[in-house]
Specification:
This protein is mostly helical and 57 residues long. It has 2 helices and no strands. The N and C termini lie far apart (77 Å).
């Protein structure tokens, strides 16, 4: 790249910036899809009641 012109370098930098933006966006989507979901409060209450019922019997 020592003999590359300024325009070639600017073009290369723009291409790399687009690539970084695309990869950042893809990473964000992957992180959202692997994030644990919050439990439904109703489900938590049902599980607690079931445990108490099973323990009492």
């Amino acid at each position: 790249m020592a003999g590359a012109s300024v325009d070639e370098l600017k073009s290369r930098i723009a291409q790399l910036e687009r690539q970084v933006a695309e990869l950042t966006q893809r990473l964000s989507l992957l992180e959202r899809s692997t994030r644990p979901r919050d439990e439904n409060p109703g489900d938590q209450k049902t599980v607690r009641e079931k445990v108490v019922y099973d323990w009492q019997s």
